[in-house]
Amino acid sequence: MNGISLIIPTYNRIEFLDKILRFILLDNYENLNEIIVVDSYSIDGTKQLIENYQFESNISIRYKNASNSISIKRNEGIKLAKSDFLIFIDDDCVPTKNFFKYHYEACLNNINQINCGNVYFADQFIKSSNVIKYRNSRHIPFLDIGNGSKNLSFQNIVTMNMSLRKKDILSKNLYFNEGFMGYGMEDNYFGLEAIKLGFQIKTNQASIIHYDFKGISLHAIKLYNTALGGVGHLSKLNQNAVWDLRYSFYLEKDFPHNNFFKKYYTTNIRLLLSFKLSKILIKFLIATDHLSFFYSNVLFKYVGASYYLKGISDRKNINFFKDPPKDWYVEKPK
Hints:
This protein has helices spanning 14-27, 46-56, 70-80, 99-109, 123-128, 130-138, 166-172, 186-196, 216-237, 239-243, 248-251, 260-272, 275-287, 297-314, and strands at residues 4-9, 32-39, 60-65, 85-89, 93-95, 113-120, 161-165, 200-210. By secondary structure, it is α/β, with parallel strands linked by helices. It has an 8-stranded mixed sheet with strand order 3-2-1-4-7-6-8-5, sandwiched between helices. Strand 2 (32-39), helix 2 (46-56) and strand 3 (60-65) form a beta-alpha-beta unit. Helix 9 packs across helix 14 (297-314). The chain is globular and about 60 Å long.
């Protein structure tokens, strides 16, 4: 079926999922054959929402439950998909104009290529929140490259706005690694394996608006869990890939520095990072979040690096395989 299957993993995000589905029905893109929503037994009315849309939509909307793992849910979507082209988005990301057109043309014209679009927050949210402004600055900007494209490394893959041919996935046996039980890095490992199998990762102009409004406290916890679970598991699969992460140079104490001065320099950087101080800074950042005058990129980076470093130090105390978390943010640093 020479069309698109849209795969959306979700969990208790009914408000944003509703926005996504409303956009899709209004867009009415002719080559979109089906929408696959893979849930984890949400308790916010998600199932009823899907049933309502199934009743009123001309597009096939399929619904299935699976374990609350982003890798498992994306893999379920791949297995269920009936179309030739697959598009992945997250459940808090609303497509913008020509989203399906850009992805469809990229899949139609390129074999063994992963197409990644841009992610950004709406201007109104950037202007009203310092943490949203900071998080938006961390997104990889593709919008300024016109209609061209550029290569991405596995570190910069954007699986929350991604497309590729199903035939290519099946022929290369490329799936998301389901061993990632904590938060993060399953997407980077997917990109790493894809490149090994001969895929190129390219940017395109398909854009989504991010509606993830987690404040600095939860954002810091996300970074903590990335270091704790995601990078921790990646190190077991491919240690060299961890060394290729740009922040490993500064934060991973076992990083293989090639001379004493670099090792000494990064050791001192880690000594300057204080988890206790970061908890105090978070309170300040929350209190001044709506005051643009107090915006400081440095403070946000300091908090993020401190929480990430805490995640590294706590790896030895957590075993995600014996005691997997119930939710991605359940493991909070103490």
